[in-house]
Design brief:
The protein has about 250 residues and is α/β, with parallel strands linked by helices. It is about 40% helix and about 15% strand. It has one domain: NAD(P)-binding Rossmann-like Domain (Rossmann fold). Helix 2 links the parallel strand 2 and strand 3. It is globular, with a radius of gyration of 19 Å.
Length: about 250
């Protein structure tokens, strides 16, 4: 008597097989981890970043289809990048720099303009360049945040941008339909950017969060990457803001 082994029903099919994922700001932190996870799900990866050396290393590690070193806030460079992309592409994720924590009354006019509009202008520029290049049902993913929801003296600009990004995302979801547009809103994420912002206070902040967050651990880039890939795959989601901060916004 012979038996035939039953097929493995738990085998995981790559969820992004044959798709192309562009990560703007993909050489480290959340962007790199998202690219890594998308690659593991079968996607072809296109990476951009400002630092050529770090970008080259990340591209080699992931076997990226291509890389491009430029400042995404330079409108001309961003437009040229999209013009040179083979189409169609499936998903575009935009990371970007951190919030501006300098008290607004201590900023000059140009500093305030950049702090207030930089993240939103980048989102608009990417959306404009994505028209006709991202396939229907594909995704634009932006990164916002949750810490600015608590109004505090000196951080009014952070709060203004935090409040504005969900509205902009929802509006773009209507403008770009059937391309989907969503916003990921992390709190503290243990990345090189967080390390550069906090400096010597990094370890103290880590311990504080481990003790106070409801999840009793720090949110890492892999947590955000898992959410990002889910939003690429789940074609029912658009115009939404997804918090991923371990409950940080609910504790003092």
């Amino acid at each position: 008597m012979t038996t035939t082994a039953a097929p493995n029903s738990t085998a995981h099919e790559p969820e992004l097989l044959g798709q192309t994922v562009v990560v703007i700001g993909g050489s480290s932190g959340i962007g790199l981890e998202t690219a890594r996870r998308a690659r593991a799900e079968g996607a072809d990866i296109v990476l951009t970043a400002r630092n050529p050396e770090r970008l080259e290393q990340a591209g080699a590690e992931l076997g990226a289809r291509s890389t491009a070193a430029f400042d995404a806030n330079d409108a001309v460079s961003l437009e040229r990048f999209f013009e040179d992309l083979p189409t169609p592409i499936d998903h575009v994720m935009v990371t970007g720099g951190g919030p501006h924590y300098k008290p607004p009354l201590e900023m000059n006019t140009e500093e305030a303009r950049v702090a207030l509009s930089g993240k939103m202008l980048l989102a608009l520029a990417v959306a404009r360049n994505a028209v006709g290049r991202v396939r229907p049902g594909g995704t634009l993913l932006f990164i916002g945040g949750t810490p600015g929801r608590r109004i505090r003296p000196g951080l009014e600009i952070v709060s203004a941008v935090t409040a504005g990004m969900p509205a902009l995302t929802a509006g773009l979801a209507l403008e770009l339909a059937p391309v989907r547009v969503n916003l990921i809103a992390p709190g503290f994420v243990d990345t090189p950017l967080s390390a550069s912002l906090l400096g010597d206070d990094l370890d103290r902040r880590r311990e504080e969060l481990r003790a106070t967050l409801p999840i009793r651990r720090i949110v890492g880039p892999a947590d955000v990457a898992a959410l990002a890939v889910h939003l690429m795959v789940n074609t029912a989601v658009t115009g939404a803001t997804y918090d991923i901060d371990g409950g940080q916004q609910f504790v003092a």
